Amino acid sequence: MANVTVIGAQWGDEGKGKIVDWLASRADVVVRFQGGHNAGHTLVIDGKTYKLSLLPSGIVSGTLSVIGNGVVLDPWALRDEVAKVEGQGVSITDENLAVADNCPLILPLHRDLDALRETAAGKGKIGTTGRGIGPAYEDKVGRRAIRVCDLAHLDTLEPQLDRLCAHHDALRAGFGQPPVDRAALLEELREIAPFVLKFAQPVWKRLKKVRRAGAKILFEGAQGVLLDVDHGTYPFVTSSNTVSGTAASGSGLGPNSTGYVLGIVKAYTTRVGSGPFPTELEDDIGQRLGTRGHEFGTVTGRKRRVGWFDAVLVRQSCAISGVTGIALTKIDVLDGLDQVAICTGYRLHGKVYDYLPSHAADQAACEPIYEEMDGWHESTAGARSYADLPANAIKYIQRIQELIECPVALVSTSPERDDTILMRDPFVD
Ligand code: GDP
Ligand code: IMO
Ligand code: MG
């Protein structure tokens, strides 16, 4: 199998960035295919930390990096991130970065609307990253979006602005806000256009060419399956499809191009923002895992909610996303616990469930059924071979593998790129 698609199999922040960076040396191209700068992917290479939101994680290793059409692109955020990463010594040129010219743009008015809606929603708020992601995707499917290719046609943007502003001015009025300042918006677009257009191209064509030449493509998902707009814990989800199938539609390649689907799975569970979380721990163990795992959002700095491993959710994610094998990350965070627990089912209204029901109220009422196992006191941090893992950690990994009905291909034992145990090479299997 030549290509690999990396997706998060929980609620995001599973360690996708670390694994994509590690795999990037085996790939010729890394492609982002959905989401936007709501993503926060952390890479640690020889002690140096890189935080990426919009740039594909292949950029740091110099691999050709592509932002596909399925991404919503905030051009100002892109410029800031390019400057930040270049400041860390990474060269970013039109040789190693390509942006799909049919990407919809995130505009300042999307950020405004995201914030206005969240504030108005009170207790019903989703807890978004506030980056305008939802409103930008709404305008895409509402056929009102300004896209990257429009930046080369700003002199004829008026009819599109009419459509866009007719929609947004009505919404803004409902929130007591002034209409969109069209002249200011156009001016901002004129100012940013040359920067974005430098990278813009029909990336489907570029990908077709490199694929024909035998290139290995690594697709980098953002968020996680439980945040998928169809399959996740709706409405507490993001506004894109995060499942593996999106790699094809979000980059302009066919469904046969996605290859090996590598689900990234944290050895416990975390979530940022609102919504159901059956195995959430609000006790000392939750605190301990959060502290040891540095569970704070990369994008917003919010404290992540923490809980035990939920095998029901991961089994469901793996099935929905056609996961071939998983990378189990952050096993080291569980070091030193006397006991560890895995959720194997839910109790709801007197019945046992082996899946997460679709309704939000049912999801919130699910009580986890736990299986307890002995923990391990030895350190797994930095282990680079399976044989270096303590016997109980191996038992834990094997039990997860059985319960989720999917093999473990990689284990990650620290934030560092090379602290990774390879059991099955996704580019070969
Ligand atoms: P992503 O959004 O899926 O890319 O994940 P994030 O980067 O937002 O969050 C994962 C965090 O865990 C980052 O701070 C990583 O540096 C860190 N990390 C990744 N793998 C491991 C691991 O195996 N052990 C530990 N302790 N930290 C890890
Ligand atoms: P990575 O790629 C974790 C969550 C937000 C919120 C919901 C909707 O780093 O795994 P949005 O701004 O997308 O409309 O917010 O989705 N969320 C993430 N949680 N990791 C992410 O990305 C996330 N991107 C969005 O916290 O609950
Ligand atoms: Mg993240």
From TrEMBL:
PROSITE patterns: ADENYLOSUCCIN_SYN_1, ADENYLOSUCCIN_SYN_2
GO terms of molecular function: adenylosuccinate synthase activity; GTP binding; magnesium ion binding
EC number of this enzyme: 6.3.4.4
Chain residues that bind GTP: 12-18, 40-42, 304, 330-332, 412-414
Localization, UniProt: Cytoplasm
Binding site for substrate: T298, V299, T300, G301, R302, K303, R304
Subunit structure: Homodimer.
Function: Plays an important role in the de novo pathway of purine nucleotide biosynthesis. Catalyzes the first committed step in the biosynthesis of AMP from IMP.
The protein's name: Adenylosuccinate synthetase
Lineage summary: Bacteria, Pseudomonadati, Pseudomonadota, Alphaproteobacteria, Sphingomonadales
